Amino acid sequence: MKYDLDRYFLEMALKEAEIALESNTYPVGAVIVDEGNNIISRGRNQVYPNKDLTAHAEIDAIRNAEDKILHAKVRGEKLTIYSSLEPCPMCTGAILFAHIKKVVWLLNDDLGFGGYRKMKGTLIFEDRFKKVEMIPEPFKDLMERQIYLLERWAENPNHIENLRKIVQKGGI
Ligand SMILES: [Zn+2]
Questions:
Q1: DSSP strand E in the chain: where?
Q2: Which of 65, 78, 127, 156: CA 20 to 30 A from 94?
């Protein structure tokens, strides 16, 4: 049986999410791949390490792709982004700007800022969204690993709810 490439790259995104959690930031990772299944870039959430609220995994991967993503956009090459979590509205916008043609993620983000399906559902930029294939939650076991990372994140001192508790107690 041929090894599932979507699974292979999602596992790589999950690995980036694990590294992010180890650096005390949101456990989200992303990988961008070209038509030949070559890895163009990897990214992970860098919000806390970089003190940059826009440093999401998908944005990080797009930035790390540098001129490769621009060349792919000009030539109309089919890039795929794999993320461990459903992209937020900001990252969804960046994905459309980058002309990425396929988006695959491990876990829908209904409670948080998951925005891809909501934005697609509004039919705003319908023509743009029509050009992007969307594959949410293809593998249950990998999805559960991402859920586990988020549960661990909820216990992290940098998690926003935990930071707020400190502020309420008069700290920071
Ligand atoms: Zn995002």
A1: 29-33, 39-44, 80-83, 102-105, 133-136
A2: 156
What is the number of other CB atoms lying within 10 angstroms of the CB of residue 107?
23
Residue 163 CA, ligand 1 centroid: distance in Å:
20
pLDDT tens track for 57-72: 999 999 999 999 999 9
Q: Which one of 58, 77, 151, 161 is the catalytic residue?
A: 58
Would you state the structure tokens that stand for residue 130, as one six-digit string? 């029509």
Question: For the chain, how are helix, strand and coil distributed in percent, rounded to 5?
Answer: 50, 15, 40
Alpha carbon of 79 to ligand 1 centroid (Å):
18
Report the distance separating Cα 114 and Cα 107, nearest Å.
Answer: 9
> If you measure from the C-alpha of residue 13 to the centroid of ligand 1, how many angstroms do you get, rounded to a whole number?
14
Active site residue 58: yes
d(CA 139, CA 141): 6
Output the CA 117–ligand 1 centroid distance in Å.
13
Cα–Cα distances in Å, from 37 out to 56, 134, 162, 165?
Answer: 23, 17, 40, 45
Q: What is the pLDDT of residue 1?
A: 45
